[in-house]
Design brief:
By secondary structure, the protein is mainly alpha-helical. It has 14 helices and no strands. It folds into 2 domains: 57 residues, no CATH class; 270 residues, no CATH class.
Length: 398
């Protein structure tokens, strides 16, 4: 019975192959002309071979089919597992990239508020520094005007100024002529001729926008001497006689006092502008530290500079806003908030600078008015005096 089942199973398998597969159908069509002979060959030759194959493997046809199906399912499951692993890996990579980008966004969002806080500190301390500069202007102005208004002996005043310059700020040209000797001490070595040179009014010898030394240091002394030379190098000398009775009985003395007062008013215009320049470049204690600009990541600026002037604070702030690093950060910004914050900060800074320009414009207008008065006086005053003399003579002849 067993021997009959095996050939029958083989025949059924071959029939299935011939009926349901494209190669089988083609083979059946090719062999359709002699089906009886083919059947005999299958039963007589192929069936024994199939029987021998099954006996060799030790499995029946059904088991072989089951085993093949199991192997196919295993391969399918293995492929599904591989695909799942790949998809999980891709998803994990996407999540990591999302977290990394989110971290970069958070970092960019946090850096700009930090810059905003720094800018706020700069603005607050800069405003306080500007107010202190106004106080320093008053001090310098009073010093210059006092020197001009207290001259009771011109020869003595000039000799005092001469000796002070010889001791502190002798220039190389003066030393070569034998007028004085250069002060080689560390305190004055960088200030030779400083009280005769406008450069030291605007900067230090090393190029810094802040004067060298403290607020009342040697360069501040040199700048005061420069302002005194420009404003009142040889001021008018006071009348040595004193007393209210003297001026009551002497109209010429009263006229001299009024001319002297006019001279002081004229010279105060120039003194105020020079005092303003000095105050902007005069270092203030702790201003660099308070504005967070003591050290900046910009080439050319000294690090750890706690004391600096308002002018240098402005210079450093502008340099940080237009440094290569700042420009690159804005170029790489992926969010609009940092750019908008930076724009708002710059608009605020522009407003502050516009106010400073308004003040400067007022001083410039004052100087222009002063020059206009002098021009009018030089042109019209001789004509007025001549016309007054002519009118006086005409009145006497009538």
């Amino acid at each position: 019975m067993k021997s009959k089942i095996l050939p029958a199973a083989g025949v059924i398998s071959v029939a299935i192959f011939l009926n349901f597969t494209a190669p089988g159908k083609a083979f059946a069509a090719w062999c359709s002309g002699d089906a009886a002979a083919i059947y005999g060959n299958i039963v007589g030759k192929f069936a024994p071979f199939l029987k021998n194959l099954i006996e060799t493997t030790g499995q029946g046809l059904e088991a072989a089919v089951i085993q093949s199906g199991a192997a196919t399912r295993a391969e399918i499951l293995k492929s599904a597992a591989v695909n799942k692993t790949v998809e999980e890996g891709l998803e994990a990579y996407r999540q990591q990239e999302d977290l990394r980008n989110r971290a970069l966004d958070i970092k960019a969002a946090m850096v700009q508020p930090a810059n905003t806080c720094t800018t706020m500190a700069t603005a607050q301390s800069l405003s306080a520094g500007a107010q202190q500069a106004q106080v320093n202007i008053y001090k310098t102005q009073q010093k210059a005007l006092t020197a001009a208004q207290s001259n009771t002996n011109t020869a003595k005043l000039l000799d005092t100024a001469h000796l002070a310059t010889n001791a502190k700020f002798c220039s190389p040209e003066e030393a070569a002529r034998g007028v004085c000797k250069i002060n080689s001490s560390a305190k004055y070595s960088n200030l030779a001729g400083a009280d005769q040179d406008a450069l030291y009014l605007f900067q230090a010898k090393d190029g810094s926008s802040s004067h060298e030394g403290p607020e009342s240091g040697p360069q501040a002394d040199a700048v005061d001497g420069f302002i005194a030379r420009v404003v009142a190098g040889i001021p008018p000398e006071h009348i040595r006689d004193k007393g209210e009775a003297y001026y009551k009985r002497n109209p010429q003395a009263r006229a001299y006092v009024e001319l002297q007062r006019r001279y002081n008013a004229m010279t105060s215009v120039g003194a105020y502008s020079l005092s303003q320049i000095k105050a902007m470049h005069q270092p203030q204690m702790g201003l660099g530290r308070d504005t967070k600009l003591a050290t900046v990541k910009v080439p050319g600026f000294a690090a750890n500079k706690n004391d600096m002037s308002v002018s240098e604070v402005l210079e450093r702030f502008v340099a940080t806003k237009f440094s290569p690093e700042a420009v690159q950060d804005l170029a790489k910004a992926t969010q609009s908030q940092p750019i908008l914050r930076d724009m708002a900060q710059m608009r605020s800074f522009q407003l502050w600078m516009s106010f400073q320009q308004l003040q400067q414009g007022s001083r410039t207008e004052g100087i222009a008015a002063h020059q206009l008065v002098l021009m009018a006086e030089q042109t019209l005053r001789p004509q007025i005096n001549a016309q007054r003399a002519a009118a006086t003579r005409a009145a006497r002849t009538q």
